[in-house]
Amino acid sequence: MSPTLFNISTADVNIITQGLDVTIILYADNMVLGSSKTVDRLEDWATDIDFKINKNKTVMMILRNAGRMAAEDKITLQGEKLQRVNYFRYLGITLQTTGLSFKIHIRESTTGA
């Protein structure tokens, strides 16, 4: 029942992100936003409908081709800076900041980590 209720309650997320260059992935009761510009809109929307975003499960990961991340790259949620991670396991695949590399995923898959 949880995924169905999540889908119903988040059905208008596409509306609040219109006009932004964003990728949205919804699966069961999880959401991935592929743009930093959407977090403020999502937070305002959640506040308006009394929807709770779990800060403990919300992280920031910047996909890049090469180089270091800029120190000013940050996203805040509910007044707190989100934790920035270099890799994140989502739907069984470990994604990492260098988007075309799967070294961590392969290592985790082969060692059972």
UniProtKB/TrEMBL annotation:
**Upper taxonomic classification of the species?**
Eukaryota, Metazoa, Ecdysozoa, Arthropoda, Hexapoda
Q: Which InterPro entries match?
A: RT_dom
Taking every annotated instance into account, which residue ranges of this chain make up the domain Reverse transcriptase? 1-95
Query: Which protein are we looking at?
Result: Reverse transcriptase domain-containing protein
